[in-house]
Design a protein that fits this description.
Structural class: mainly alpha
Distance between the termini: 15 Å
Protein name: MFS transporter
Keywords: Membrane, Transmembrane, Transmembrane helix
Membrane topology: Multi-pass membrane protein
Number of strands: 0
Largest sheet: none
Subcellular location: Cell membrane
Shape: globular
CATH architecture: Up-down Bundle
InterPro entries: MFS, MFS_dom, MFS_trans_sf, Sugar_transporter_CS
Length: 411
């Protein structure tokens, strides 16, 4: 099955709006919404806590930021394969959500220890690594192939609502607790527990194969990479990871450029989430109609524009609105769309494993990107480092276009 066949806009889902989005997708979206409130509370304050509170260098922050995403890499594959093997995607996703919830309390125990913080961050990302592929597999198995862009758009929109609210909650907790990071971590844990409860009560296991269908073996998972379509998707995801320097660096650069007060720093994440929130569902519908590859490539363009805005000769609110809007567009055009592009290529029995391969390619590449950008910041200064990142984004986007359009033309 070629990418050109699975990327063709489907006629069946056209004009049906959210009617094709089932209850399972909405329940999973609710879980992601609540969990993202918890996660983004921590994410919004972590750059300040590490760079300004613990005085980490850009290189050290790049390492921690890389671990924050890279720790999910191998566990994504393990989690995806185990979920397919035991046919319990909901249970494994629930364990991952619970592990991330416990990690929020671990930040209290870590205190000011960089090693302790790094370990807790790794545990939190392990939880994300275990849950992401089974969750996305449940979405693909609960949705007609022609409506996958819409389904992931709705899910990512709900996810973005949580990302939008998380920094606001963190800001409120900081203001009400006298700038106590511990209060943020405890509140984040309580919210994360609520997300686990929603998953247990409302998400259904879906798309179970007949008992007569053999359970996938390790050799079956390895055989996925023999498919040219799967290899190209994994490479495309890796290129996306290479092009991404990470939210923390983007927000720190904006803070330097605009001299926004430290109390308001968490609101930078809110701006990105607002753009994501407004655009994820419309871009998902657009991807189903015109093809998912053009939308994905538009995301690369938005990322390059974001980087260029970070060094543009403008400042103030104009810079904040333009940069955060472009950054939100980047996420909306790539996150769920990449999963929608991958879903139809993968067999049902190995859906979680295949999605995990794609996600792992992106996560491993992001580790290298984050560390290298931290080194570039230290060696060349922030402006030159961001300009180099913009060049990488353009090259990565062009290479991705070559990979995804290798077989035929977009419908």
């Amino acid at each position: 099955m070629y990418l050109s066949t699975i990327d063709r806009p489907g006629a069946k889902g056209r004009g049906r709006g959210v009617a094709v989005v089932g209850g399972n997708v909405l329940a999973l979206g609710t879980v992601s919404l609540v969990t993202d409130v918890s996660a983004e509370m921590v994410t919004a304050v972590l750059p300040l806590y590490l760079v300004l509170g613990l005085h980490l260098s850009p290189v050290a922050y790049g390492v921690v930021d890389g671990v924050y995403t890279g720790a999910t890499a191998l566990l994504r594959i393990v989690g995806g394969f185990v979920a397919d093997r035991v046919r319990a995607r909901k249970a494994l996703a629930g364990f991952g959500y619970a592990l991330s919830a416990v990690a929020k309390l671990g930040l209290l125990a870590a205190g000011r220890s960089l090693a302790g913080i790094g370990f807790v961050v790794a545990v939190d990302r392990m939880g994300k690594g275990l849950r992401t592929a089974p969750r996305d597999a449940l979405i693909t198995l609960s949705t007609p192939p022609s409506a996958l862009g819409r389904a992931f758009g709705v899910h990512r929109t709900m996810d973005a609502v949580g990302a939008f609210l998380g920094p606001l909650v963190a800001l409120a907790v900081l203001a009400g607790s006298g700038q106590s990071y511990d209060a943020v971590f405890v509140t984040s844990f309580c919210v994360a527990v609520l997300g686990v409860a929603v998953l247990v009560l409302f998400v259904r296991e879906h798309g179970q194969p007949s008992p007569s269908v053999a359970r996938p073996a390790v050799r079956d998972a390895a055989a996925l990479l023999r498919s040219g379509d799967v290899r190209r998707l994994v490479l495309a995801a890796a290129l996306l990871g290479v092009a991404t320097i990470g939210d923390g660096f983007v927000y720190l650069m904006l803070q330097r450029r605009t001299e926004i007060g430290l109390l308001w720093f968490p609101l930078l994440a809110v701006g990105t989430s607002l753009g994501y929130l407004l655009l994820a569902a419309p871009l998902g519908v657009l991807a189903d109609r015109i093809g998912r590859r053009p939308v994905l490539l538009a995301g690369y363009a938005a990322l390059a524009v974001t980087y260029l805005l970070l060094v543009a000769p403008v400042g103030g609110w104009a810079l904040l609105v333009a940069a955060l809007g472009a950054y939100g567009l980047y996420y909306a055009a790539t996150d769920g769309v990449l999963m929608a592009l991958a879903g139809p290529v993968l067999p049902d029995a190995l859906r979680a494993t295949g999605l995990a391969l794609v996600q792992t390619g992106q996560a491993l590449a992001y580790v290298a990107s984050s560390v290298l950008f931290g080194l570039a910041w230290s060696a060349w200064g922030p402006t030159a480092a961001v300009l180099a990142a913009a060049v990488v984004a353009v090259v990565a986007g062009g290479t991705t276009a070559g990979l995804l359009f290798y077989k035929g033309r977009t419908a």
